[in-house]
Amino acid sequence: MRAAPGRGARIAVERFVRELTRIAGSMLSHWKKRLVQLAVVGAVAGGSFSLGTFAVRQVAGVPLAAAPAPQASLTSSDSVPLPALSSAEGPQRASAATTFLGPNFIADAAEKASPAVVRINTERVREVGGRTPLEQFFPEFTPRRGGMPRLEQGAGSGFILSGDGTVVTNAHVVEKADKVYVTLGDGRKTTGKVIGADPLTDIAVIKIDAGIDLPTAPLGDSDRLRAGEWVIAVGNPLGLDHTVTAGIISALKRSSNEVGVREDRRLDFIQTDAAINPGNSGGPLVNIYGQVVGINTAIRADGQGIGFAIPINKVKEITASLLRDGRVIRPYIGISMVSITPELLRELKENPDVAKLPQAEKGVWIREVIKGSPAATAGLRADDIIVEVDGKAVSEARQVQELIGARKVGDTVSVSVQRNSKLSTFEVRTVELSQTPLS
Question: Does the keyword Protease apply (predicted)?
């Protein structure tokens, strides 16, 4: 039998442990200090313990939720009778540090969102011109007829926003459609009615009658996104229903010009390398918690792995207006403008036949004033350089657009311009921007 250590030996061991713990405490953080203390005591006392849980968290090779899933913000700045939108219930902060997403976190996220993803098919009849060969050869003997009808079909994706059948998609998916058909995730097919569409943000709302308590997609917060985050695209590319692709957020706040769409689109885009193809338009881009953070809307045909989505916070704002008014009411003054940049000045110097140089090296250059518009009535002219709006300095066309867009229809906006080296201010009364079809 082994003899127990004497009293003197125990005192020496205890002093050694205290001294070593004191040294470790001055060098390590609180939690590391506790581990060192346990390790020393265990070693001296001849005991053993496992750090298996700690080791797994470091080498398991799967993402660990460092923060709880962001809570969905479902309120609008406007008082809107929105349907009961789905909310996102993420892990509580207290348990976030121990929440594992698991090796199949992409499949888990897609599984949460997929039941709410729908396929949208559209039809429209167009009259196309044309005469038969006989009519072309003897036009004077054949009466002129109207165009010949031609059936055009389109397809896209969407997702159910509320259990009563409110569906969100891209405006270009349902543009000029005579008939809209919606196929639910469970295979049921129904017709849809376009409640409203906004060409400038490419967002549309459809209503379907398929019962109540339909599966919905929880909404996330696109303002909290960061480049490099995992995202998943769910949709029906090329007619392949419920296709799931994954990638990361490549960049945020891409402008319309960078994306290559209409320059008057009034929003920034999320760039992703998750595969997006024709038919994905209108489908959700979701985060690792299965929350919708964007609507897939465009790809760059001249590249690979370059797709774009509309941020979900913008979708919430536009959807609220469409549900309330059937359209988005925006103020308008009637100018075409461009930001003056070194690149623009260089191009104009190299190609003087394109346009004359602006009379400034910075500011917002008015290229055209629409005849009869509020800007024309107020006295603004082409080639004026906008330097301030409502007393706020501007250097980009986007800033002018945002400042005027923040006002209400009928408000008067002060626009200060540089003209012939002189500064002048004009009071412009806004009117409602008419909705124009997508081109």
Answer: yes
